[in-house]
Each structure stands twice: as structure tokens, then as C-alpha cells.
From TrEMBL:
GO terms for biological process: lens development in camera-type eye; visual perception. Gene3D superfamilies: Crystallins. The lineage of its organism: Eukaryota, Metazoa, Chordata, Craniata, Vertebrata. The keyword Repeat applies. It comes from Ameiurus melas. It comes from the Eukaryota. Keywords: Eye lens protein, Repeat. The keyword Repeat applies. This is Beta/gamma crystallin 'Greek key' domain-containing protein. Belongs to the beta/gamma-crystallin family. Residues 2-40, 41-83, 130-172 form the Beta/gamma crystallin 'Greek key' domain. Crystallins are the dominant structural components of the vertebrate eye lens.
Length: 174
């Protein structure tokens, strides 16, 4: 499925830990994480246990320090493997909580939500198919949020700190 290796030091040095599945608490395996190698698959990594805090999408590749994955610190405490998906992608965005207000359906990436949806705020959404990443700012920048198929009645359901969604993309790099 996938394999990710966490290293305590930069440039793949120091104590390491290999992981091929979801892990709710990585703290017992290393005290901090300064480099990562993703040998296969895709993962979301989180700065706190239980998939909480800053999220980072990791695809196959070498990340020699936490800046290379746009990290703000060397604190990585949980990870989640993203299952491969090859079907049709479908996502519905709603202007208000509980699937109210204007709605728009998407099947592809969107570099500027405000240009296409005409709203900067997304208060709820439904992911019908595929795995997606929401970004805080346009052009796939800023905080990242992983969404799998399901209903998200409020932006806090995808662990966002506010309702602004600047861009989003499908996870297709398997």
C-alpha cells in the first residue's frame, strides 16, 4: 500500500521509524521529525496525536527537512495512509452550514474557489467520491485539510480553524 520513513535529523539521519499504516501517536518512536522519505503511496501527516493540528500531504519523494514539506516545526505526531483511488471524483460545496445556501458541484481541481464558486467561505461540503485536499489560500497554498468521502456539516468537521477555502485538489498521485 504505502511506506513512509520518519527521521529525527535532517537529510535522513538519526533515529528512524518506518510506517505502512495509520498511526494515531508516533511519539514513542521518535521525539521530533526533521526529514521524511515516502517510498510509496500517499500520506497525511499531523503535528499532533490523533490526526489533529497542522496537516501535510506527502506523496512519494524525499523531504530533507521540515521546510521541504512546508512544515512550521519538527513536531509530527500522527500519520494516515491515503488509500489508492482511481474512480470519478465528486465534491459539493455549500455556502452555509448543514448543506444550506448556494451549492456547487466539482469534479476537478480548483485553484481559486472565489473565482469559480463566487464565495470565499465554505461552511459545509459533501465528498461523494475520491480524496481531496482543501487549502487555505488560492493556488494550493497555506494550511491543508484532508477530506475523504463523507458529509462535513461544518468547516470544523474537516478540522479547519475558519471557513475560508482558497483552493482544493484531488489526490491522484498514487
Amino acid at each position: 500500500m504505502g511506506k513512509i520513513i520518519f527521521y529525527e535529523d535532517t537529510n535522513f539521519q538519526g533515529r528512524s521509524y518506518e510506517c505502512s499504516s495509520d498511526c494515531t501517536d508516533l511519539h514513542s518512536y521518535f521525539s521530533h521529525c526533521n526529514s521524511i522519505r515516502v517510498e510509496s503511496g500517499c500520506f497525511m501527516i499531523y503535528e499532533r496525536p490523533n490526526y489533529i493540528g497542522q496537516q501535510y500531504f506527502m506523496k512519494k519523494g524525499d523531504y530533507s527537512d521540515f521546510h521541504s514539506w512546508k512544515g512550521v516545526s519538527s513536531s509530527i505526531r500522527s500519520c494516515r495512509i491515503i488509500p489508492p483511488y482511481r474512480g470519478i471524483y465528486r465534491l459539493k460545496l455549500y455556502e452555509k452550514a448543514d448543506f444550506n445556501g448556494n451549492m456547487m458541484e466539482f469534479m476537478d481541481d480548483c485553484s481559486s474557489v472565489s473565482d469559480r464558486f463566487h464565495h470565499r467561505h465554505v461552511y459545509s461540503c459533501k465528498v461523494m467520491n475520491g480524496y481531496w485536499i482543501f487549502y487555505e489560500y488560492p493556488n494550493y497554498r497555506g494550511r491543508q485539510y484532508f477530506l475523504k468521502p463523507g458529509e462535513y456539516r461544518r468547516y470544523r468537521d474537516w478540522r479547519a480553524t475558519c471557513s475560508i477555502v482558497g483552493s482544493f485538489r484531488r489526490i491522484t498521485d498514487f
